[in-house]
Design brief:
The complex is a heterodimer of chains A (about 120) and B (about 110).
Chain A: E1 3-7, E2 10-12, E3 18-25, E4 34-39, E5 45-51, E6 58-60, E7 68-73, E8 78-83, E9 92-99, E10 108-111, E11 115-119
Chain B: E1 9-12, E2 18-23, E3 34-39, E4 46-49, E5 63-68, E6 71-76, E7 85-93, E8 98-101, E9 105-109
Classes of the chains: A mainly beta (about 120), B mainly beta (about 110).
Amino acid sequence: QIQLVESGGGLVQPGMSLRLSCVASGFTFSDYAMHWVRQTPGKGLEWVAGISYDDSNKYYADSVKGRFTISRDSSKNTLDLHLSGLRPEDTAVYYCGKVLQPYYITLIDDWGQGTLVTVSS
Amino acid sequence: QSVLTQPPSASGTPGQGVALSCSGSTSNIGSNYVFWYQQLPGTAPKLLISKNNQRPSGVPDRFSGSKSGTSASLAISGLRSEDEADYFCAAWDDSVRGVLFGGGTKLTVL
Protein backbone atom coordinates (compact mmCIF):
# COMPACT_ATOMS: atom_id res chain seq x y z
CA GLN A 1 0.00 0.00 0.00
CA ILE A 2 1.04 3.60 -0.48
CA GLN A 3 3.02 5.10 2.39
CA LEU A 4 4.37 8.59 2.86
CA VAL A 5 6.47 9.15 5.96
CA GLU A 6 7.62 12.65 6.86
CA SER A 7 10.46 13.47 9.20
CA GLY A 8 12.70 16.38 10.18
CA GLY A 9 10.30 18.55 12.14
CA GLY A 10 11.18 20.09 15.47
CA LEU A 11 11.70 23.28 17.44
CA VAL A 12 13.80 25.92 15.70
CA GLN A 13 14.57 29.57 16.37
CA PRO A 14 13.40 32.36 14.07
CA GLY A 15 15.75 32.91 11.16
CA MET A 16 17.12 29.38 11.28
CA SER A 17 16.80 26.58 8.72
CA LEU A 18 15.34 23.08 8.67
CA ARG A 19 15.06 20.25 6.17
CA LEU A 20 11.97 18.09 6.01
CA SER A 21 11.96 14.75 4.24
CA CYS A 22 9.21 12.47 2.98
CA VAL A 23 9.99 8.85 2.12
CA ALA A 24 7.55 7.31 -0.34
CA SER A 25 6.72 3.66 -0.96
CA GLY A 26 4.03 1.55 -2.60
CA PHE A 27 3.97 3.40 -5.93
CA THR A 28 6.31 4.46 -8.73
CA PHE A 29 7.57 7.66 -7.13
CA SER A 30 9.26 8.93 -10.30
CA ASP A 31 5.90 9.02 -12.13
CA TYR A 32 4.08 11.33 -9.73
CA ALA A 33 4.20 15.00 -8.92
CA MET A 34 4.29 15.75 -5.20
CA HIS A 35 3.22 18.56 -2.88
CA TRP A 36 3.91 19.95 0.57
CA VAL A 37 0.92 21.33 2.49
CA ARG A 38 0.95 22.80 6.00
CA GLN A 39 -1.63 23.29 8.70
CA THR A 40 -1.36 25.66 11.61
CA PRO A 41 -2.68 24.01 14.77
CA GLY A 42 -6.44 24.38 14.83
CA LYS A 43 -6.55 26.13 11.48
CA GLY A 44 -6.97 25.33 7.80
CA LEU A 45 -4.75 23.82 5.14
CA GLU A 46 -2.23 25.91 3.22
CA TRP A 47 -0.46 24.65 0.13
CA VAL A 48 3.28 25.32 0.36
CA ALA A 49 5.02 23.91 -2.71
CA GLY A 50 4.74 21.38 -5.51
CA ILE A 51 7.16 19.64 -7.86
CA SER A 52 6.54 17.90 -11.17
CA TYR A 53 7.14 14.19 -11.60
CA ASP A 54 10.34 14.77 -13.57
CA ASP A 55 11.67 17.64 -11.43
CA SER A 56 11.30 20.04 -14.37
CA ASN A 57 8.88 22.41 -12.64
CA LYS A 58 8.62 23.69 -9.10
CA TYR A 59 5.81 25.78 -7.69
CA TYR A 60 5.67 27.82 -4.49
CA ALA A 61 3.12 29.73 -2.45
CA ASP A 62 3.89 33.46 -2.26
CA SER A 63 4.24 33.16 1.52
CA VAL A 64 7.31 30.91 1.18
CA LYS A 65 8.79 31.90 -2.19
CA GLY A 66 12.49 32.67 -1.86
CA ARG A 67 12.71 31.00 1.56
CA PHE A 68 11.64 27.38 0.96
CA THR A 69 12.99 24.97 -1.66
CA ILE A 70 11.29 21.77 -2.76
CA SER A 71 13.34 18.95 -4.25
CA ARG A 72 13.09 15.24 -4.99
CA ASP A 73 15.44 12.29 -5.39
CA SER A 74 13.73 9.57 -7.40
CA SER A 75 16.65 7.19 -6.84
CA LYS A 76 15.83 7.28 -3.12
CA ASN A 77 12.05 7.83 -3.38
CA THR A 78 12.34 10.94 -1.26
CA LEU A 79 10.77 14.38 -1.35
CA ASP A 80 12.46 17.18 0.57
CA LEU A 81 11.53 20.67 1.69
CA HIS A 82 14.31 22.99 2.76
CA LEU A 83 13.00 25.76 5.00
CA SER A 84 15.16 28.81 5.58
CA GLY A 85 14.60 32.21 7.15
CA LEU A 86 11.97 30.63 9.36
CA ARG A 87 9.36 32.83 10.99
CA PRO A 88 6.95 32.16 13.86
CA GLU A 89 4.11 32.09 11.33
CA ASP A 90 5.74 29.08 9.66
CA THR A 91 4.82 27.03 12.74
CA ALA A 92 2.61 24.23 11.45
CA VAL A 93 2.25 20.54 10.76
CA TYR A 94 3.80 19.90 7.34
CA TYR A 95 2.30 17.14 5.18
CA CYS A 96 3.67 15.65 2.01
CA GLY A 97 1.22 14.41 -0.56
CA LYS A 98 1.20 12.35 -3.74
CA VAL A 99 -0.97 13.55 -6.60
CA LEU A 100 -3.88 11.60 -8.01
CA GLN A 101 -2.53 10.60 -11.42
CA PRO A 102 0.90 10.17 -12.99
CA TYR A 103 2.71 12.77 -15.06
CA TYR A 104 0.37 15.66 -14.25
CA ILE A 105 0.58 18.34 -11.59
CA THR A 106 -2.80 17.79 -10.06
CA LEU A 107 -4.08 17.54 -6.51
CA ILE A 108 -3.29 15.19 -3.65
CA ASP A 109 -4.87 11.81 -3.15
CA ASP A 110 -2.54 10.28 -0.56
CA TRP A 111 -1.18 12.14 2.47
CA GLY A 112 1.56 11.47 4.96
CA GLN A 113 0.95 11.69 8.69
CA GLY A 114 2.70 15.06 8.99
CA THR A 115 5.66 16.46 10.90
CA LEU A 116 5.42 19.41 13.30
CA VAL A 117 7.63 22.45 12.84
CA THR A 118 7.67 24.96 15.68
CA VAL A 119 9.44 28.29 15.18
CA SER A 120 10.03 30.03 18.47
CA SER A 121 12.77 31.67 20.46
CA GLN B 1 -7.24 34.51 3.72
CA SER B 2 -8.44 31.62 1.55
CA VAL B 3 -9.37 32.37 -2.05
CA LEU B 4 -11.81 29.45 -2.03
CA THR B 5 -14.67 30.38 0.26
CA GLN B 6 -16.37 27.87 2.52
CA PRO B 7 -18.81 28.49 5.35
CA PRO B 8 -16.95 27.94 8.64
CA SER B 9 -19.58 25.66 10.11
CA ALA B 10 -22.54 23.45 9.25
CA SER B 11 -24.68 21.04 11.22
CA GLY B 12 -27.29 18.36 10.82
CA THR B 13 -28.97 15.57 12.71
CA PRO B 14 -28.38 11.86 12.13
CA GLY B 15 -30.10 10.66 8.98
CA GLN B 16 -30.40 14.13 7.52
CA GLY B 17 -28.64 15.45 4.44
CA VAL B 18 -26.35 18.46 4.26
CA ALA B 19 -24.63 20.37 1.47
CA LEU B 20 -21.31 22.15 1.94
CA SER B 21 -20.45 24.90 -0.51
CA CYS B 22 -17.15 26.10 -1.97
CA SER B 23 -16.92 29.27 -4.01
CA GLY B 24 -14.01 30.35 -6.19
CA SER B 25 -13.30 32.10 -9.45
CA THR B 26 -12.67 31.47 -13.13
CA SER B 27 -8.95 30.83 -12.55
CA ASN B 28 -9.50 27.97 -10.13
CA ILE B 29 -12.88 26.23 -9.81
CA GLY B 30 -14.07 27.71 -13.10
CA SER B 31 -11.32 26.02 -15.09
CA ASN B 32 -9.99 23.15 -13.00
CA TYR B 33 -11.15 20.12 -11.05
CA VAL B 34 -12.35 20.44 -7.46
CA PHE B 35 -11.20 17.98 -4.80
CA TRP B 36 -12.77 17.52 -1.36
CA TYR B 37 -10.97 16.29 1.76
CA GLN B 38 -12.26 15.09 5.11
CA GLN B 39 -10.15 15.61 8.20
CA LEU B 40 -11.08 13.87 11.42
CA PRO B 41 -9.67 15.33 14.65
CA GLY B 42 -5.98 14.63 15.09
CA THR B 43 -5.54 12.93 11.73
CA ALA B 44 -4.22 13.80 8.27
CA PRO B 45 -6.70 14.85 5.60
CA LYS B 46 -8.28 12.09 3.54
CA LEU B 47 -9.42 12.37 -0.08
CA LEU B 48 -13.19 12.22 -0.28
CA ILE B 49 -13.98 13.42 -3.81
CA SER B 50 -11.64 13.96 -6.76
CA LYS B 51 -12.22 15.59 -10.13
CA ASN B 52 -15.45 17.30 -9.03
CA ASN B 53 -17.50 14.16 -8.45
CA GLN B 54 -15.34 11.02 -8.38
CA ARG B 55 -15.38 8.91 -5.22
CA PRO B 56 -12.22 6.93 -4.43
CA SER B 57 -12.79 3.31 -3.54
CA GLY B 58 -13.88 2.95 0.06
CA VAL B 59 -15.71 6.27 0.24
CA PRO B 60 -19.41 5.65 0.89
CA ASP B 61 -21.86 6.73 -1.79
CA ARG B 62 -23.49 8.96 0.83
CA PHE B 63 -20.84 11.47 -0.26
CA SER B 64 -21.22 13.17 -3.62
CA GLY B 65 -19.64 16.18 -5.31
CA SER B 66 -20.80 18.58 -7.96
CA LYS B 67 -19.54 21.70 -9.70
CA SER B 68 -21.26 24.52 -11.54
CA GLY B 69 -19.37 27.48 -12.92
CA THR B 70 -17.13 28.85 -10.19
CA SER B 71 -18.80 27.00 -7.32
CA ALA B 72 -18.73 23.46 -6.03
CA SER B 73 -20.70 21.51 -3.48
CA LEU B 74 -20.22 18.43 -1.33
CA ALA B 75 -23.44 16.67 -0.41
CA ILE B 76 -23.64 14.21 2.46
CA SER B 77 -26.79 12.16 2.83
CA GLY B 78 -27.87 10.01 5.76
CA LEU B 79 -25.62 11.83 8.23
CA ARG B 80 -23.82 9.68 10.77
CA SER B 81 -21.95 10.68 13.91
CA GLU B 82 -18.67 9.61 12.31
CA ASP B 83 -19.15 12.26 9.61
CA GLU B 84 -18.37 14.93 12.21
CA ALA B 85 -15.15 16.39 10.82
CA ASP B 86 -13.61 19.30 8.94
CA TYR B 87 -14.18 19.38 5.18
CA PHE B 88 -11.90 21.24 2.80
CA CYS B 89 -12.30 21.96 -0.89
CA ALA B 90 -9.28 22.52 -3.12
CA ALA B 91 -8.47 23.38 -6.72
CA TRP B 92 -5.50 24.28 -8.87
CA ASP B 93 -5.34 27.98 -9.69
CA ASP B 94 -4.00 28.96 -13.11
CA SER B 95 -3.22 32.55 -12.04
CA VAL B 96 -1.07 31.78 -9.00
CA ARG B 97 0.11 28.45 -10.46
CA GLY B 98 -0.54 26.62 -7.27
CA VAL B 99 -3.11 24.80 -5.18
CA LEU B 100 -5.77 26.72 -3.31
CA PHE B 101 -7.64 25.35 -0.32
CA GLY B 102 -10.87 26.60 1.15
CA GLY B 103 -10.84 27.64 4.77
CA GLY B 104 -12.76 24.50 5.70
CA THR B 105 -16.21 23.75 7.07
CA LYS B 106 -16.57 22.16 10.48
CA LEU B 107 -19.50 19.77 10.31
CA THR B 108 -21.29 18.98 13.55
CA VAL B 109 -23.70 16.07 13.78
CA LEU B 110 -26.16 17.04 16.50
